[in-house]
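Entry 12.
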Amino acid sequence: MNETMNLLLNRRTYRDFDENYHLPEEDLQQILTAARQAPSWMNGQFYSIFVIQDKATRKQLVDWNPGNPHMLKSSVFLIFVGDLHRTQLISEAYDRENFTGDSIEPVLVATTDASLALGNAVTAADSLGLGSVVVGSIRKHSKEIGELLALPEGMFPLFGLSIGKPIVEMKVKLRLPEKAVVYYEKFTPYDFSLIQEYDEIMEKFAEARETKKWSIKFTDYFASEPTMIIDQLLKMKKLFNS
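Predicted 3D structure (C-alpha cells):
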C-alpha cells in the first residue's frame, strides 16, 4: 500500500489538540495550497477559505457553537465559504447580467468545489502529522458568521476545519457496508439488515459523544422541522430567489 492510500484509509477525526502547539507558517501554507489545488467545476474555484487565528474571533465561534471547543483550542481554524461573489465581480467588469439567484445550480457547484478543497486540506494536514475535524454545524449561525467575517453578497459559510497537534489517539471509524454505498452500473436494492449491521458496528465502536444508534440519530434529524437557516441566508445574499 502506498503512502497516500495509507493516509486515506486510516483517516480519523481528532477533537483534542495541544493548545500550546504553534502550527508553522510553512505547514499552514502547504495545507492552503493543497486545498486550492483541488478539482473544481470548469476550474471555476467557486469557494474561498478564511484563516481564523485570532483567539477572540474563535472564542466567539465557540460561544455560538459550544459543542465544538476545539475551534478555539486547535492551532488554526479554517472556514470554507461558497463564493459566487467573485463571478459577480467578473460579470460587472464585463457589464453582463448575472443570474446566479435564478437556480440552485450555482449554489451546488460552489458547495461541491468547497467540499473538494476541504478534502484536500484534511489529507494535507494528515500528511504533516497533524489532526483535524470538520465542523458543519457552523451553518446554524450562518448569518452571524457572515457578519463576523464581513462576507459580501454572493458568499455563504459552509463548514469549518480545526487543525492542530492531536493529544488523544483516535480509532479509525468504520463506514457503512460497501453494498449500501457502492453500485456497479445501476442501483440494486439492499436489505435493511445492512443498516442494522452498521448500527451494531457503531455501538461496538462506542464513541462517547454518540447517545443514539446511528440509524435513530438520522431518523430523528430528518423527522425534525427544518430550520432553513441556510435557505434564509442564501436569499439574503441574493443567491436563491425561490
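Annotation: DSSP finds ten helices and four strands in the chain. The radius of gyration is 19 Å.
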